[in-house]
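Support reply, case 0932

Customer input (verbatim):
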Amino acid sequence: MAERDPESPVALGEGKLTFPCEQCGSALEYSPGSDHLGCNHCGHSQAIQGEKAVLEHDFQDMLQRIARAPATSLGEHTVQCEGCGAQAMMAGQAGRCAFCGGPVVMDVKELGEIVPPESLLPFGIDGKKAREAFQTWVGKLWFAPGDLKRLAQVHGIDGVYLPYWTYDSQTTTRYKGLRGDHYYVTESYTDAQGNRQTRQVQKTRWSPAGGTVEVEFDDVLVCASPTLPRPLIEKLEPWDLDNLRGFDAAYLSGFIAERYRIGLEDGFQIADERMQPRIRSAIRSDIGGDVQQILSMSVRHAEVKCKHVLLPLWISSFRYKEKVYRFIINARTGEVAGERPWSVAKIVLTVLLAAAAIAAIVVLVKSR
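Our regenerated output:
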C-alpha cells in the first residue's frame, strides 16, 4: 500500500476537510483568527506555511479558460442537499446540510466546469462566539413570539466558506436625460374665511441634458451561490477584502466549502446590476439642477478583472413550531442576519394601543 503524505488533507466523519497532526496523527483544524492549525487531541499547533499571492484575472481570458478547461476540484468530492440544492465541497460524506438542516445529502456524480478558488478570507470568529451572537440576536428581536428565546434551539452551527466572484470594471456611460430647475411664482387664493391671500408655489423648468460619465469599480461582490437569498446574504457586507489571502487548503481544515452554482458570466450580470446605483448617481450629479430624469443610458465596460474567492460564514438553522429559519454570521466582522418568526398577536396589540393613544390625543385636543 502506498504511504500517505503526512501533510495531505484527509476526511473527517462529518465530511469536513482536515489535515493530520504531525505529532500524533489526529485531525487538525484551523484556529479562527490565526495562521495555525490546532490539534484537539495533543494540543499541538502547526503553522500554515507560506503566503500565496491573491490572483486576479482578465474577465474574457477567464471565460475562455473555463470553456476549454476540464473540471477541477480541491481534492474532495461534492455532495448536494436534496432539500435546498446546496452543493458543498467536502472530503467525506455529510449527514446534514449546513444551509437548511436537511438530513439527506447525496453525492454529485457530474461536477461540470469549475474554477477553483484562488483566494479567501480566513475565519476570524470561532464557533463559541457565533453561538453567543445567535442568542443575543434572538433576544433583541422585536415582535418575536414570547417563547422564541426558550424554544429556538440551534440545530448545529457550521463554519462554511461561501463562493463569491469579485469584479473590477472601468465603466463609461453615455446618457440622455432631463434637468429640472425649481423656480417659484406667487399665486393668489381665498382662504377658508373668505380672505384673499398669496403664496409661493414651486414650479420646475425642464431642459434636455446628455453626456458621458466614467465610474471605476473595484471588487464588486457577487455571491456565487443561490442557496441563501441575496437580500439576506448582502446584509453581511461589507467584507474586509483588503485582507484576502492566497488560497491555501489548510484554511479550510475543519470547515465546509460550498461549490459555486452561479457561473462567472451570470455573476457579471448581477455585478452590473449592483453597479447601476453608483452610475445613476454619477449621471444625476453630471446633469445637475434640482431634480433629474434619466431617459436612457448605455454602459460600456472595459478592463474587466475577476477572481473567485471564498468568504467565511457561520450558518445555522433553528426550528420554531415546525418551521426552519436560517441564521448567518459574517465570520470576520460578527455582523449577523437571519430569518425570524413574527408574533401576530404582538403586532395587532401594538397597532391597537397606538390607535387608542391617537384617539385619546384627538379627544383631548377637541375638549380644549
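We compared this against your earlier run and they match. Two observations from our side: Residues 10-176+210-347 form one domain. The first helix runs from residue 59 to 68. Please reopen the case if you see a mismatch on your end.
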